[in-house]
Design a protein that fits this description.
The protein contains no helices and 31 strands. By secondary structure, it is mainly beta.
């Protein structure tokens, strides 16, 4: 049985945890439509009300939090567990937002690329230059599907590039320790795929029949769906895993290192903090909890946070 410490409960579909230097965890609550700070004693403080569906989050070079806003969901409860069911009735598009942690002010940095609206921005990671890559999950209705993509953007709002499209619901995203590869987890396909970075906003496209034009890192069998991810310092990729509920750890050379089960089928995200970055903070979204556990290996320092 996995040993963990519950930090807080009562969250409304938490995601996007950021382990801050003061020991607090900043995260999003997708259903509540907020950016929220959780203190070490479990107290919750609303930083900002974003509207829509705040999803992935990361601290930027300016000390502000950048949010992937998916535009909002409808919600349902089955077997006592909360989950999204469809785009919200008032959904228009997705967007990238920037939040001032001191004032709670929210500004929209990007809402389109080359005249096309962003569909459902999902997860985000900053590079050494202080710019970022993010996934767009796409959008699905009962009889319609908008394909997903990977984007690159400058944090000053001056450039956004569609780096890879179409993709099958890309969700979690991360950079290798040397910043030379991008990893993305595909939700419904249950696959982790990697691409080489060959320029600003440019990914190498493998020839057909490569999986999603990249290198397949892992694709476990069974009823597995992938959510967001974080990297260990050694390059392993830790992917939040839905349905089975847990964290699947993959080797950068391919294959599964281990699976760490969690008591929530909607295990949505993981980040690292604490001494030596060896405390994992994990969002359990269906039951609305943030937990912490000792991790067997150190996490990878983030460019805008841990260095």
């Amino acid at each position: 049985m996995t040993e963990f410490r519950e930090i807080t409960s009562g969250l409304q579909f938490p995601e996007g945890p950021i382990a801050m230097p003061d020991g607090s965890i900043i995260l999003v609550e997708i259903e509540r439509q907020t950016l929220t700070r959780v203190r070490p004693d479990g107290r919750q403080e609303i930083i900002a009300k974003t509207g829509g569906g705040p999803n992935g989050a990361a601290l930027g070079p300016d000390g502000k939090v950048y949010i992937c806003n998916n535009g909002g969901f409808k919600w349902g409860v089955d077997d006592g567990q909360n989950h999204p069911t469809a785009p919200a009735d008032d959904y228009v598009s997705g967007r990238i937002e920037r939040v001032d942690l001191e004032t709670g002010a929210v500004e929209v940095l990007y809402s389109e690329c080359n005249g096309r609206p962003l569909s459902g921005p999902n997860d985000i990671v900053f590079d050494a230059q202080g710019n970022f890559w993010f996934t767009d999950l796409g959008k699905s209705w009962e009889r319609e599907l908008v394909h997903g993509a990977i984007y690159y953007a400058r944090s000053d709002g001056s450039l956004i590039v569609e780096a890879m499209h179409p993709l099958a619901k890309p969700n979690g995203i991360g950079l290798s320790p040397d910043d030379k590869r991008i990893y993305a987890a595909e939700t419904d396909a249950g696959r982790l795929v990697a691409w080489d970075i060959v320029g600003e906003g440019q990914l190498a496209r493998r020839p057909w029949p490569a999986i999603e034009w990249g290198d397949l890192i892992m694709a476990p069998e069974g009823n597995v769906r992938f959510d967001s991810l974080a990297l260990e310092a050694n390059g392993n990729i830790c992917v939040a895993t839905l349905m089975t509920g847990g964290i699947t750890v993959a080797s950068p050379t391919g294959g599964v290192v281990e699976f760490i089960p969690m008591p929530d089928i909607m295990t949505t995200n993981i980040c690292f903090g604490g001494p030596n970055l060896q405390t994992a903070y994990i969002t359990l979204a269906a039951t609305g909890r943030l937990i912490a556990m000792d991790w067997p290996r150190p996490g990878l320092p983030l460019h805008c946070l841990n260095k």
